[in-house]
Amino acid sequence: xLEIILRNPMFRGIxxxxxATLFENGxxxxxxxxxxxxxxxxxxxxxxxxxxxxxxxxxxxxxHTGKLIVMAEISAPHAYAAAFIYAEQNEFPVTVVAQKESxxxxxxxxIFIEMLQKNRVLLQNFLTFISNxxxxxxxxxxxxxxxxxxxxIADFLLKRRIGDNLVVMLDETQQELADMFGVARPSLxxxxxxxxxxxxxxxxxxxxxxxxxxxxxxxxx
Length: 221
Known about the structure:
By secondary structure, the chain is of the alpha+beta class. It folds into two domains: about 140 residues, Sandwich (Jelly Rolls), CATH 2.60.120.10; about 70 residues, Orthogonal Bundle (Arc Repressor Mutant, subunit A), CATH 1.10.10.10. It is built from eight helices and eleven strands. The strands form three sheets. The protein has a four-stranded antiparallel sheet. Strands 2-7-4-5 form a four-stranded antiparallel sheet. Helix 5 packs across helix 8. It is elongated, with a radius of gyration of 20 Å. The termini are far apart.
């Protein structure tokens, strides 16, 4: 367990012996989840530092209409919802669902704040973490709210391409992409078809080829 925790950005720069000391009192739990198990429900109290030790979880925001938006996917050794545990209204802003068999480390916020007081490096790393998460959430809100579907697709494809390669292989289904973009699946399919007609991309199942890179970059800006 300690070796995995050491790979978490919040514990970067801390020695194994110091991490062992922080966890020596045993005031933590490790819980096991199967695929599709709910780890935390939107609106429930968020009272623990939670680190994925094994597997992967997905943060989903569900609107009152039932529309699902994927906010983030978190795999080992990363933490989730840590930015909310010390909020005045410390509730899960999302529903967290296991995407595969997973193990989660839970540390009560009262215990974690004692750790922060004992280790200055951990405190600095935690402040950096919550600042980075604030930036991520701001960018995510901008992405979901102010971008067109075409712009979202362009941004996604440009971030997925490797080096100078113009071919992007998709891991996600079209429904999963629609959830990520916060749009309806038919709207996503229609927009991708429009981009093909406009000569921006070609699509063959899960293989997307970028045809007009310059225009795609302009759309993503």
